[in-house]
Amino acid sequence: MTLPAILQNLRLPLIGSPLFIVSGPELVIAQCKAGIVGSFPALNAREAEGEPPLLDAWLTRIKEELDRHNQANPDSPAAPYAVNQIVHRSNTRLERDVEICMKHEVPIWITSLGARPEVNEAAHAGGGLVLHDVINDRFARKAIEKGADGLIAVAAGAGGHAGPLSPFALVQEIRAWFDGPLILSGAIARGDALLAALAMGADLGYAGSAFIATQEANAEAEYKQMIVDSGASDIVYSDLFTGVPGNYLKPSIARAGLDPDALERSDPSKMDFGAAKAWKNIWGSGQGIGAITAVESVADRVDRFEAEYRAAQDRLAGQLGWQRG
Q: Which of 91, 97, 112, 318 is most solvent-facing, going by the fewest CB within 10 Å?
């Protein structure tokens, strides 16, 4: 299947994943200007009681700034942006946020924690493309049956809410029956990892943790430095903090007074994505952060991704040429 036009002609086949608290207009705009899809969770836009919806203001700002960039740079236009909707029943803002996204004709919708036909229909009514994140083949099939256009395969090693399956296993099972847009998430923090995702059968990669340690990210300086200082062995997989299994930085767990190697199981009945989290200082991260050695701008990070991606292409071409010769 031909990739939808909105996902073609990117500088790199890469989506900056929506990050809880961390992703805001500054990060999204910088990612889009750098030539990759930028995204944020709708629930990150939290206004005080009685104030107008902050989501509306964020979308207005993103659209206006990207429009100005495109007018000034017709030869290197910005990539499109995406909004993540948590469609779990605990999200009491969902209906309102869907209406706001319809009003702004958001080009890409990322849906998580449940597949809702009515949300897909709303996105399509405004010309939007729906990408649904899944952790296994069963959920992938349900998402497509309920109207999603594409899938984000969240494999082992991804930051935040992650699945337990190897990316090799997850991609091959989905590709056995689905030829639509497929994005791979899981420890993609370098350009060569991005090329590997495409070699496996994905159309694009999905990177989040690499963008936490950037100047535009809405993260505490200590969080950014912890990403720089940590590696794969500093990540723990647990469902304690939200009720959904995910990957988190061990040092942030220890700082909260918990033993990261002896965490309890969660109570699924208390999962709530619409309220402020008691664990807001337990910081999510994927296993690929060993590649992150400094806090830098989004532009510099994307430059590095591209250099590594092109170098990997050349290296692979040389290896294949030697083998075939």
A: 318
Judge whether 216 and 27 are in contact, CB under 8 Å: yes
Distance CA 10, CA 105 (A): 20
Residue 263 CA to residue 257 CA, distance in Å, equals 11
Q: Inform me whether the pLDDT recorded for 163 exceeds 90.
A: yes
Asked whether 263 and 241 are in contact (CB, 8 A), the reply is no
Q: Virtual CA dihedral for 102, 107, 113, 119, nearest 10 degrees?
A: 30
pLDDT, position 319: 84
Judging by beta carbons within 10 Å of its beta carbon (0-12, 13-18, 19+), is residue 102 exposed, middle or buried?
A: middle
Rounded CA gap, 211 and 216, in Å? 9
The answer to whether 36 and 77 have CB atoms below 8 angstroms apart is no
CB atoms within 10 A of CB 223: 20
Q: Which residues contact 37 (CB under 8 A, 6 or more apart)?
A: 7, 10, 14, 15, 16, 31, 79, 80, 81, 82, 108, 204
- Residue 324's pLDDT band (boundaries 50, 70, 90)? low
The structure tokens listed for 12 are 């790199």
What's this model's pTM, rounded to 2 decimal places? 0.93
Q: Give the pLDDT confidence of 98-111 residue by residue, as tens digits.
A: 999 999 999 999 99
The Cα–Cα gap between 297 and 307 comes to: 15
Distance, CA of 18 to CA of 55 (rounded, Å): 14
User: Residue 1 pLDDT more than 80?
Assistant: no
